[in-house]
Amino acid sequence: MPQENEIDGRTLRNDRREILNEEEEDTLGNGEADARKRLEDANGMPELKDEEVQVNDEEVCLDLGEPSPEVMEYARRELGETEDAKCRTLHEFRDMIFERGECLPHRMDNDFLIRFLRTRNFNVHRAHRLIVNYYNFKEEHPEIHQDVNPVEMKHIGEDDVMTVPAYRTQCGRRMMIYRLGNWDPRKYSVEEIFKATVIILELGVLEPRAQILGGVAIFDLEGITMGHAWTITPQVASMVMALMVSAFPMKTHAIHILHQSWVFDVIFSVFKPLLDVRMQNKIFFHGSNMESLHKHISPSHLPKKYGGTREELAYYKWIDSLSKVPQIVKEMNMVGYIVPEEIQKLVQEAAED
């Protein structure tokens, strides 16, 4: 046991160093004015207007098309994305992956590589570190990546542990909502929640505008107990931070904490060593004050449970709907997920029609 604790502590310190390196490079590379601008953005300043958000946003679908001119302007302004930058950095990035040989990506096409460049503001060296971390994370945690059948993850939705609204925030960002108080650790392990999270992240990152804008997480902690707290080990905290910061090509724009209690303080003490100032500035605590949440996310873009006007959507409905789209099924197969034969058959028939 002492040896395991020693390993967890060392992992925690290494992950904190990795996160700090990413954040410090981001700040140093863009100057104090840009750093201040990003901190303001992290505090909820909208970049897009309501009318720029997709109108038919109740439909369960992924926006796989080219981002709107407004989103591309945001990409140019905030990420430094231009056609010239894309062509140049994609070439450099691909060469760096081949030359260094620190990972063996399952694909090397532009559509795949661009998500890593966008997440690291087209800094090739940082994008390379990210893709290496991405594959290392997969290798280190096969229990949440290998032999996973997304269709079999329905229990996460049935228990209302997590959900992804079909609609986005007023800024055009996807939301992931967790209700950890609904999770019974005796029923299934925390790895199941990681599996469901990674599936949604892999689906979400297929959207070019999500690669540019990032996403928002809401943690509703109503009903959490010490039984939940005991599951949050340093290793679990390390995995959470890896997905949010250092090992997945999607930016976390903001994290909103609802209904926190003294139990949350116990859980947060495990995460705190991993958080630098910039990451802390992305976390907002609202308690039971929904008006505080509404300062960041408009009620017209929130479920009724949180003082909004919208309906909810069960997690499994996402999987059911998206598993009928040929391109998405192909992408999920490439990542390594198991797609049942009956779904592959239906998709093939749809493609033939």
UniProtKB/TrEMBL annotation:
<feature type="compositionally biased region" description="Basic and acidic residues">
    <location>
        <begin position="33"/>
        <end position="49"/>
    </location>
</feature>
<dbReference type="InterPro" id="IPR001251">
    <property type="entry name" value="CRAL-TRIO_dom"/>
</dbReference>
<feature type="domain" description="CRAL-TRIO">
    <location>
        <begin position="172"/>
        <end position="314"/>
    </location>
</feature>
<dbReference type="GO" id="GO:0016020">
    <property type="term" value="C:membrane"/>
</dbReference>
<dbReference type="InterPro" id="IPR036865">
    <property type="entry name" value="CRAL-TRIO_dom_sf"/>
</dbReference>
<feature type="compositionally biased region" description="Basic and acidic residues">
    <location>
        <begin position="7"/>
        <end position="20"/>
    </location>
</feature>
<protein>
    <submittedName>
        <fullName>Alpha-tocopherol transfer protein-like</fullName>
    </submittedName>
</protein>
<feature type="region of interest" description="Disordered">
    <location>
        <begin position="1"/>
        <end position="49"/>
    </location>
</feature>
<dbReference type="GO" id="GO:1902936">
    <property type="term" value="F:phosphatidylinositol bisphosphate binding"/>
</dbReference>
<dbReference type="InterPro" id="IPR011074">
    <property type="entry name" value="CRAL/TRIO_N_dom"/>
</dbReference>
<dbReference type="Pfam" id="PF00650">
    <property type="entry name" value="CRAL_TRIO"/>
</dbReference>
<dbReference type="InterPro" id="IPR036273">
    <property type="entry name" value="CRAL/TRIO_N_dom_sf"/>
</dbReference>
